[in-house]
Design goal:
globular, 67 residues, three-stranded parallel beta sheet
């Protein structure tokens, strides 16, 4: 299974990646809405974890794009 993490806090991203890896999930991450949307265009993900407040918009934008 593959997860996408969109968060602008590197420490939180690292923590989430560690937890997900411990559960057998691989992950990719982005720190911005645009970065998250770009990853969605080139990959398939089973799980999306996103912060709501991001430097260039909101996590809701990433969720809408993922749908």
């Amino acid at each position: 299974m593959h997860a996408l993490i969109v968060d602008d806090e590197p420490i939180l991203v690292e923590l989430m990646e560690t937890v997900l890896a411990g559960k057998g999930l691989s992950s990719r991450s982005a720190g911005t809405v645009s970065g998250g949307i770009e990853l969605l265009q080139y990959g398939q993900f089973d799980l999306l974890v996103t912060d709501f407040n991001l430097p260039d918009g909101t996590g809701a934008e990433v969720i809408r794009e993922a749908k």
